[in-house]
Amino acid sequence: MENLNIQATQRTPEVDFNFEKSIFFLRGESYPEDVTSFYGPVISQLREHLASREGVEISFGFELIYFNSSTAKILFGLFENLDEAASAGNKVNITWAFEEDDDNMEEMGAEFAEDLEHADFQLKQLKG
Amino acid sequence: MAFEIFERELAVLKDATAVLEKGEIVDASDAQRYAQLIKDYEKLLKSSRRLVRLSDRTEEKLNKLARSFDEKNRMLEGLSVKLSKYLSPQVYHSIFSGEQDVVLSTKRKKLTVFFSDIKDFTGTTEHLQPEDLAEVLNRYFSEMSKIALQYGATIDKFIGDAMVMFFGDPESKGVQEDARICVQMAVAMQRRMRELEQIWRESGNEKPFRMRIGINTGYCNVGNFGSDQRMDYTIIGSEVNLAARLESKAKAGGILMSYETYALVRDMVDATERAPVKVKGIDREIRSFALNDIYDEKLSERRFLRNSREGMILLLDKDKLDQEGCQQAVTDLEAALHEIKGWLE
Lengths: 128, 345
Description:
A: alpha/beta; 6-stranded mixed sheet; B: Alpha-Beta Plaits; 8-stranded mixed sheet; two-stranded antiparallel sheet
């Protein structure tokens, strides 16, 4: 599968998916005008990739500054997909990075991680 | 099928409905309860989708508002930076920090007031073209304002070629220290004026500006004067007028202080008392002191020794001591040393 690199815009995050190494990043702000058309292709490629992995190390880094409710729903689904991949025998590491003093984003990360049963999760504070 | 953010929930609903439709639930009562459960789940899903849409729309509006606030904030910041140039930094700070209300109110405070103007301004400038005059005048005000800000003066106003400043409000270091800083500032200004005089002469100005300064310390009314529509943070009172009168009696390049100011700075200046004068608007005779020099290493090139602390004041001025005077000083200091040593035993 070809790697996916989408530059960030004012409303959409940077998507940096390296399928070859199974290293994935989402960075920036997310409140797309049409959430399904932005995330649809991204999520379906990721799901397809995750479903085909077994016994590999998968790393997903979130560095989000702001996201809207629709994105939150997408993220809940994404966490479930990652947890399923971990349950299928992969070593899944999720890092949720937040800016210094952004208590809200830190709390969100903790909430997303609440339902994880198999994946490893880590909160990371970004330096100034 | 297009991507759907509630696709998991929709899949659950589809599976559950299929179970019912296939008649896999045999018991009619269970089937009825199961159908009700599906209906409730469907409702819940519908309201969740509506809530997310509603939340997105609200967030969008809030974001727009936040962006508009940011824009307005930036505009106000820019505006306040521009406005700050019309106000003294201390006054600007006290208003913008909320320490001071923008209402018509005044208080009485002991201030040291500084007045200056250019000696014979009209005569000095009549040969200058308006553009050249504006340039020289702006340079003069810029240079003097820079020094005033370094010393923490509250710049009241510029009137033509004159400057009015004061020390003691809105910030004060105490009456004596305010007076001392004001005198130091005046000396620094005259020193810079002498440098500028040279620069102006070299650039072809035959009659460079020469500044006169008057300083007085006393109780003034300070605060917002004017009307609710247009007010001015300024000082009024006879002590303010006295500073202006002293300035008019100062020599070009000179600093003339009232006795009240001199009394607060006498240990750090060399000054000559002038004959008492009567000034317009003040009944009493005014004692005034023309400053010759200041005992300050940064501001004076004079050779002197100055040391003062509680219980001790020492001042030796080389310019005022001839050979005989120096000999006498040695004798006096030796006697003083002998005495002090006695106190230590």
